[in-house]
Amino acid sequence: MRKQFTLRVSQVPMDATFQEVRAALDKILKRLPSAKPLNYTLELDTAGDHWKNGGGGVIYLDSVNDAKHLTARHDILVKDQKIIFSRVDESLTRALAIGPRFRIPDIALAARQRREENLWHLRHEIQIVAVQFGVIGRQRDSFSVEWDRDYNPEGSSQHRLDDKPNQTAYLQFNKCREDQNPRSIQIVIDGYPGTHLYRITIPIMEIKTMVNAYELGHPYIILELLNPPSFETRLRHLPSTGDARADLEKSWQRINHLDAAHERVVPFTSRALRLVLPRDDSNLDNFIQMSKWRLSPRLRQSLHMDISRNLELFSRNRLDCVDAMVKRLPWIVGFQCEALLHNCLLDPTELLGLEQKIFCLNRLGTAFAADVLKLFNKSIPDIAKQGESVEECFDRAERETRKKGTKVDLLPPRLDTFHCHHVRVTPTSFQLSGPEFEHSNRVSRLFGPEYSEYFLRVAFSDEGGSRFRIEFEVDSHGFLAYSSSGLRQHSVWFVTPFKHPKWQGLVTADAIRKSLGSFSDQLLSWPSRLGTCISQAFSATFPSVEVKPHEIEDIADIETDGSFGAGKSNDKRRCFTDGIGTISPQLANEVWEKFCEIRPAARITPRAYQIRLGGCKGVVSVDYRLQGRRICIRPSMKKFDAPDSLGIEISEAFDRPAAFHLNRPLIMLLDSLGVQPTPFMKYLDMALETVHEMLNTPYSSAKLMEEHGLGASYKIPLFLTRLERYGLTALHQRDPFIRNLSLYANYHIKRELKYHTRIPIPGCWTLVGVADVHDVLQEGEVYACIRRAGEEPFWLEGPVCVSRSFSCQSPAVHPGDVQRVIAIGRPEPGTPYDIEDLANCLVFSVRGRRPLSTCLGGGDLDGDKYDIITVPELQPTRCARAASYNPPPQKRLDRKCTIDDIADFVVEFMNHDCIGLIVSNHLKLADQRPQGVRDADCIKLARLHFVAIDLLKNGEPLRDLNKLPRPARKPDWACGESEDPNDGDHYPSNRILGVLFRHVELGSNPVEEPPLVDDTFRQEDEVLASLAPQALPLIEALVPEVDESELEEVFYQYRYDLKYQCVAYNLQQSPTSRLTEEEVTLGTILARAASLSESRKRSNLTKRLEKQTTENVRNAEVGILGDADSTLELKLARAWSAYKMAYRLYRSDVMMGSRSFACIALNIVLEILEKIEHEKEDDEDDWVHC
Cα–Cα distance between 833 and 625 in angstroms, integer? Predict the structure, then answer.
């Protein structure tokens, strides 16, 4: 086994190229005493600006004598500067000596050469004569310059960054630093002889088009961007600490504009950038070659481009005129006008040109005017494709809005949702969207949906929608609160004062907070904990039943020694019932009945609920010993006092078991604990085989879609199952839309397998944790009963491994986060769990020195879910001791805190929210260290992860993120979906994650393929032939009674919302990007994520999309079915008519929405036929019994 010896190279001149350093080393190494052939690898640190390297690097040698010889030499010169060689730390040296399985992988020779080739091809600096931001004309043949600076010393510009001459600017391609976007263009502006440098960074993935043309002999390039670039600055001469790379990392500071003139136009002009180059074509040639190497969009030549410099589209006067117009409009109409401007859809002149039309619409009805403008917002990007003017597009939006009528708007308001407007604040601008469906919370239900326009949801993000860390302020005027899940997405609530008939005086943010309850003195001096308590009222919940004060019983927590203490334990780790209470069977059934009125469900009645009740939060499990209507609350559930709030609010009902999937952190942990690679490969192959089979039959597609949560809003799994039952399998094979649903799902699941290693394990489960209130279980024992609808229950028995679920935002990172316990199996007759099986819950023992839940990544029982591994081959033979950390520091004040203190905490949280960074570094380090997650640096990161998780409650952040242990290189499994893992910037990982990653062949993205077409197949004919014998005799007399114009209104309302969703939830967050109808129907986004942060953003967008589509489909179903009291036959006639109408519209070129609407209608038809069949069977059974 070949050993390698590693030396650190330091004091390398930062202007030296890789070739210069290598040449200096070659001269020395050729004269070294080693008898072996010369063989070494050099890797230089890379810098993010115009420096050629980061001031140091690493050299790998095969001979220990060569390594010793180099460390003793002090005469190796690079550009007349001595470079120094030193040994790396001992742990790293040992890691290198162990062998290829566990050493820091030296990338393959071809990949290493590719990396060196990358740096060589990207070495040029493109000189820039002028930088200009502006607007591209709608016909793509003009560019209006709204801000420009001339960097030609001979130029005549009167405006410069610091009003001093001799400024220079150049463009370069980023040289792939680990902590920067590896594929980006950087424009560096040197303010010589000023004190600062400025930098404009443009990710390659954000470039939509590149156009090249000439003006007065100067070549220029126009970059059209999906989202604005980032702007940064630093001192021109850096203060030195002796560590050049560290100095460089800390030097660049994010800013939101380049100068005062740029500040006014930056929100509107940052998506179009014009770079003027010197007359010498060498700069343009170098740019073309480098952009090809970096896989940029193709540079398109333009024969004519009109450049305008004096239009001043965004002058102060014009912006003031828009502001005056908006103030004269109702708020919901003005909001849509502001969206047109700030989302860069119209310039002020175009918007003011619509002023008369907007005010005319408003006179017809405020809600109608807002709806027209909302659709207009999403229609503007199609102007060029439609060949329309702005006015024609506006008229088209009005016509389409009229078609949807008011039927859906007149539906009774729902208790579980409300409409909410959204604002996304970025470093350069703010973008407006909505109103969108939001899950209701206690506060929104307090005032009702008619007052929802006074509430605003504000999110803070980078330009493309991903999270970022930058100094900013939250204005506490109007700041209301946040929910815990919302704050993790950097989102908060604002409210504007309003009047309410049941409220004395104005309803203000302060008045709402005071109405929630009373808080202890301890909470009032603790901003983070006070904010968390207030957030309970803003958590998304479903209303259920109300209880009376005497039906609420206070019971004690069960503490470490197993006795029932008098009060709450002072040490959270000693409390076995942290966050869990009990509920009587009668009250639990009432809660479920109320829940099903809002969310119809055909599953089994849950035996546990996650609830909010006044100032209490947590889980309640059914206790069969409680009689009547009773709910028992423990001290660990009480956060503050709210005696007047007696409604039980449901956060989640645990009515079914969740299938367990492996994930990357857990796989790495199991691999480090000795689990062999074979079972991982076995289950991955099983998953891939199932994915390939899903294309064969509707039932196989349905089963896999349901397992992965695809198509849930549209009930696609149930729809496909019914197609097979009624002999409509041809639709699955030949109908382009339905076939695409399976192809899109196939790609989505394989992408999850490849880039998230989300492997399903049959027979393993994810369940909510509850406490053994009957004190049946011994220490080290658990109990679990699995019950699924329509199936017999079964019980888990024997050795199992338990870990906290990845869904709890707390992946397994410490070696002790997986523990081995015994599942007791089916209980004896007459025992508590025979009487009440607590189905689909994992019951933890209340005996022992420490609660098991706290051993699993610091879990508790207030709603945390736990993974149960029943497969012996995936269970480590010996588990590590669970982590035990001291409580993290708490940030308290020596006075009562104000809302300003809570707002300051919000800002601090957003700036220091580093959980994702820690987990990412932890995984990469574990991949490179011989002991995996048991390595000392990984253990350190696990402890820091514990502190970062508790930031939301304790308020004390991790301060210096630059001191976090970092991986030396990136493994191939960590590459972005748009990156090539063999590009030289990643190494092929030898651990199991790398093997699994390379084993999955993803194939082409179906969104990027030509659409499926089958002109010989007509779905409606197939359906008519199969269902007519069953359906037509039932509805023949009723079809003439159906008002098809009413169904058309339902369709156009559905289509209206669908078009909005296709634009609002695309990954680029750009008005010009679209989701396909198939993506919306499935509830997935197939666009490639360029990075881990973009993957998280896609996941969050998918959740928001599912929320919107669920409401849109429910409204469509209600509209199709009509009167709830009508007969099944009449409902069948309406659904049949709606299906035929959808395909009539589709054949008449109303493409958007008609196919998915037809699926909704056909699913209703099949469902009603099932019900009619069941009724006949029941009647026959009754006749036989008679």
Answer: 12
